[in-house]
Amino acid sequence: MHDTTRLLTAATALSQLLREHSIAHAFHGSFLTSLMANNPLTDEIYCIVEGGSSHPFRRVRQAVTGSENISTTPTPWCNRLHATYHGFIPAVEIEILPAGEEGPRHLDSSTTMAIRGIPFLTVSEFIRAKLKTWGSRAQENDAQDIIYCLSRYWNRVDINRIPEDDMNTFVTRYPSAAPAWTAIKRKYGM
Questions:
Q1: d(Cα 121, Cα 156) in Å, to the nearest integer?
Q2: Selection from 121, 114, 166 nearest residue 30 by Cα
Q3: Neighbours of 63 (CB within 10 A)
Q4: How far apart are CA 47 and CA 37, in angstroms?
């Protein structure tokens, strides 16, 4: 588990570098639900980055070149990139994910929201990404993030961004999500 305040500091530093290089990005993972719930601990942080004219990983590596606080570590055998914030001991690692593969293809005002001055996926996009991850890993922490966002922010969910079959499967497995999912469907006349 990580201290949410430390992750916020690391995310702010990375976000500043990405903004300086005009790189569209958004954070997600349990870090988002921890911030929304004022939870002091969290276990994951991701940063989705748009590619543009070159691969997102290359753009991130170029953006952090010369930074005293952030470096990157590629893992070519599994196509991963981690940005490491060195302002704390131990250092904070943020996994970089390409937009379109892990989240929406385009990161703009319709898919991102600002929390404490840094971009995050909107509630709808977060639930969509978490639902996809839960479908492949079936981990309890992903399910709890989905349930938290559904139950508290159901009125902000765009049903057009949520795969209905996947959510129906999820609700069957986690009945506590059913009232919020029913409210969303009712809101959209379904």
A1: 12
A2: 121
A3: 23
A4: 20
DSSP structure class, residue 21: T
**In contact, 121 and 36? CB cutoff 8 Å:** no
- Fold classified for 1-121: Beta Polymerase; domain 2 (3.30.460)
Cα–Cα distance, 118 to 112 (Å, whole number):
10
Look at the block and give the residue holding tokens 């990580």.
2
Looking at residue 157, its pLDDT comes to 96
Question: Hey, where are the domains in the chain?
Answer: 1-121, 123-190
pTM, full prediction: 0.92
pLDDT at 123: 97
pLDDT digit string, tens, across residues 100-134: 888 899 999 999 999 999 999 999 999 999 999 99
- Burial class of residue 129 (count of CB atoms within 10 Å of its CB; 0-12, 13-18, 19+): buried
User: Which residues are bridge partners to 113 per DSSP?
Assistant: 120
Burial (CB count <10 Å: 0-12, 13-18, 19+), residue 76: exposed
**Is 75 a residue whose pLDDT tops 90?**
no
| Cβ neighbours of residue 167 closer than 8 Å, sequence gap 6 or more | 131, 181
Please state the separation of Cα 93 from the chain's center in Å: 14
Q: What is the pLDDT of residue 138?
A: 87
Nearest to 98 by CA among 35, 163, 23: 23
